[in-house]
Amino acid sequence: MIRVTNLSFSYSKGIPILSDINLEFDLRSTAIIGQNGAGKTTFVKLLKGLLKPFDGEIFIRDYNVKKTTAAELAKTIGLVFQNPNDQIFKRNVLEEVMFGPLNIKLDKNTAKQNAMEALEMVGLTDKLDLNPHDLSLSEKKLLCIASVVAMDTDIIIFDEPTIAQDYEGKKKIRNIIKTLKEKNKLVMTIIHDMDFVAENFERTIVFNEGKVILDGDTRYVFSKKEILKNAHVEAPGITRLGEKLGYHEIFLTVEEFIEMKEKEMMG
């Protein structure tokens, strides 16, 4: 889906933001984690074509990102911004979600059908005529997710999807990720919510000071305590609880932990 070779980037000469990144992305759902300033958002903007690499190459399917406009890439890769106010600009909710599909030249009927399906997923079908700026922050975030989902791109990137979300909001986003994976789409996220990563993403990549320092199956990544500590990343709550209780297994969900405890009690 995506191939990144010897990628480097800086905003100012002599101050590298990313250095020699080599990654390949398949259909595994992937979380990109690391402290603020690690280079995660810059990396994603490069994938989307919003920035161009200084050195190295990025291929999205057959597109060389250096030689492709962000508008051309919009049919293949969608990005939900961290701050929904950076993304919202139409007069009502339905127009907002239809804008993306129409912009990539889907016909009006398909655009509306995609928009309604996406709004159903995020639970906003009762707010079609509202001005998006009158929604709560949580609803705005869900609206932006719907806007990108409606474009039906092969790759979807969420920047901090769980910000401002309560349990129900996170549940909706979890279900959207599951649905997208079932449709064979590559789902990626930049995120600080490690519990959400552990529950929903198969692969995790750790950035630190502009470099990839860890990459692999999410359970494997959260087993590497020292590397995570050096990157100032804390493992999920249930992983840390298991460790404190003396277990060698790496737990990613509360359900896994409960299942293990039940087996202990039975046996």
Automatic annotation (TrEMBL):
Keyword flag Flavoprotein: no
Compartment annotation: Cell membrane
GO CC field: ATP-binding cassette (ABC) transporter complex
Pfam families reported for this sequence: ABC_tran
Major subcellular location class: membrane
Coiled coil: none
InterPro entries registered for this protein in UniProt: AAA+_ATPase, ABC_transporter-like_ATP-bd, ABC_transpr_CbiO/EcfA_su, ECF_ABC_transporter_ATP-bd, P-loop_NTPase
The entry's keywords: ATP-binding, Cell membrane, Membrane, Nucleotide-binding, Translocase, Transport
Membrane topology listed for this record: Peripheral membrane protein
Stretches assigned to the ABC transporter domain: 2-234
GO molecular function, one term: ATP binding
SUPFAM superfamilies according to UniProt: P-loop containing nucleoside triphosphate hydrolases (SSF52540)
Source species, domain of life: Bacteria
Cross-referenced SMART domains: AAA
Family the UniProt entry places it in: Belongs to the ABC transporter superfamily.
Protein name, entry field: ABC transporter related protein
Organism annotation: Bacillus methanolicus PB1
Organism lineage string: Bacteria, Bacillati, Bacillota, Bacilli, Bacillales
